[in-house]
From TrEMBL:
Domain RND related barrel-sandwich hybrid residues, every copy: 66-208
Segments passing through the bilayer: 12-37
Database matches in InterPro entries: BSH_RND-rel
Superkingdom to which the source organism belongs: Bacteria
Source lineage: Bacteria, Bacillati, Bacillota, Clostridia, Lachnospirales
UniProt keyword annotations, A-Z: Membrane, Transmembrane, Transmembrane helix
Protein name in the entry: HlyD family secretion protein
Species assigned in the record: Acetatifactor muris
Amino acid sequence: MAKSKIKKYRKPLNLNIGMIIFSVIFIYVVICVIMYFQTSHIVRYEVKEGSLAADTIYRGVILRDETVVYAQETGYVNYYAREGERVAKNDLVYIVDETGRLNEELESMNLGENSLSDKELAEFRSEIVNFAHGFEANRYDSIYDFKYSLKNTVLKLAGINMLQSVDELSNAAGVSIMNRSFAPVTGIVAYWTDGYENLTAQDITAQIWEEDETYEKKRMTGNALLAAGDAVYKLSTNENWSVVIPIEPVRGAELQEEGYVKVRFLKNGYESWGATELFTGGDGNTYLQLTFTNSLVTFMTDRFLDIELIVEDETGLKIPVSSIVQKEFFLIPENFVSPGGNNGGDSIVRQYYLDDGTIAQETLETEVYFFDSQSKEYYLDSSILNTGDILYSTDGQETYAVSKRATLIGVYNMNKGYADFKQITILYQNDEYAIVKPNTKYGLSVYDYIALNAESVRDDQFINQK
């Protein structure tokens, strides 16, 4: 039986139109994906109306006219003027017991029970209410000011009731056991020093705020032993006082131009108007001095004070700071730009040379980016002009050599599908956002689309948006 030879049957190529279409689509998708990741994509931002509240909370240092009074003799000091009380010249402020016998003799005497009058009780009530209203847990050290102030008030009230007995005791002993000290000038009494009594605006530097963390007062209390020459109290001799704050130069200039600004004291919520004066400190930084004519007594125990400047929020078009860019332009005098060209835009007439060297003229359509009403100059795109180009005036009587340049602050508008620079006027700016003037002739309008990141955009770049 003969063997049969078996050959493998080759199937004919059978093209499936569905597979072809699928393959083409798949290849197209792959190419699009590759191009997508290789092409820079510009994120757009929709311009909206908004406002920015300026950072108006500041920590300031208080400047006053302060006179420190020093003890004339050594002894135990007892105060008879309450801290924050105004004393006239020659009013009794304290007495000095040089021998130490005063307390011993008074303890041996039966002075009886003393009750406080309504006026005296009102002094306690006023101090307690003011402290409770202004106390903040993060400034716990203020409780020590309250403690010493209250203690001195107690000693003062007790001392007033004892003065008559002290005089009787001195007469009985036949010798004075105390020396009285009177105010040298009129002023408001304070029983602490901190070394800043002679501080002036010219002495202000940033180091003062750095020292705030380790700031300490030297307090004086009744019944304390002081040596001759020690500071015993101080007087604020002028009702006018001021608070100095560090501030940004632009913001400070705006406030100085206003002349006055409303201030809220965070310690107690009180509000007052302060006269503004901008100055440069000894370290070259900018500071704002706010001068007040009232409330000196309220802050007699303070050197540093937290305040809030009550100013209106800036409103306008709110845009991200990352979208802001600077661009350079040529400045062209007003009479060399013709408004309303063939396509509705502006135009200029430029000189050029033919092949045979003959001078000719050409009209160029151009876009105006800004007009300076003071200098009477247009800002024109530098991409269509070169330094040295000769332009003709609108009446053809004058020529102008292009050379002068200037920069504008703006953003890239994306409404037309390409990067179109638009000039902006910034009203206020913080680290993240800026408020710009709305509806300017060459600027932005609400609902415009701009490039979120200006650094990723080139002039007239066609944009793949997302």
